[in-house]
What does this fold into?
Amino acid sequence: MKKLLVVLFSFFSFIAIAAEPAPEETKFDPGSMITHHITDDYSWHFADNFVLHLPVILYGKNGLEIFSSSNFYNQHHQLVPYKGYVLEHGHIYYANEAGEPLTEATADGNEKRVGPLDFSITKNVASLFLSVALLLLIFFTVAGRYKTNRGKAPRGVQSFFEPIILFIRDDIAKPNIGPKYERYLPYLLTVFFFIWFNNLLGLMPGGANLTGNIAVTLVLAVFTLIITLFSSNKAYWAHIFKTPGVPAALLPIMIPIELVGILTKPFSLMVRLFANITAGHIIILSLFSLIFIFKSFAIGPISVAFAIFMNFLELFVALLQAYVFTLLTSMYFGGAVEEHDHADDMGHGQH
It folds into this structure.
């Protein structure tokens, strides 16, 4: 734990905290404001005059280069080229002599922008590190309490998380997976708390929209798919390639449908989490935008009231989405390890 804290301290000490002058007043653009808050970025904007400029890590023509993202901004917070690179629309490209993204011709006659390999610590990556550190800190503490308080009633943080852990074990893993639930329980607990914690962190002022990033939900869904496929037994594949009760003449139609069904399950996991979390953020930000659009004492309180209501509703959605993702994952695992009774599948096993 000490080594982890040292690594985290070293990482965040690299982050530059920039105090920037307020830009000149311009017309409020709700679309760009909402897009800025729900998408990834090379700096973490908490409030006006308080920005965390994150480290940019590039590997390109000049080898490995590491510098702060603050170098892409001048004193008026306008984007400028730096070291032959230019930041545009959330991506870093090579800059040409005019300071614009360098392009090259493609085989089909079009042009594409050229950039280096990008390993930068973006806002979502920094939020990911923060949530992982928080998870490790909490659950190492819980594990330590179990060792020191063996045989005693739980207390403190242990008493808060124990009912949730038991709920996932007794009401999600056991009923849906069956006797082999124990080998999947660590993954189910990790997925549940990872999604829940990041959903809550995303609702905090200045929070990153990590679980509203489709790349993150894609990785979680792919993990579920890989575990499902590697856990599957003969009965699982027999049900796909020789569906019980289906005439042989229909198998050429049923087999592709069943194979597509394997991929649509993780796809639904990915889209459901991404869409629900992102939609919640957009609604809350849209309600706050009404204050600056109408600039009315009549609209302001109503917008704030609805935004607060939606924020409390999102607290419930944050927990609900973690539960749904974990529940469906356990059902997919259960279908992969279940020993199918073909007689029951065809309706002949009932008395």
In short: The mean pLDDT is 85. Residues 16-120 form one domain. Residues 26 and 292 are 12 Å apart (CA to CA).
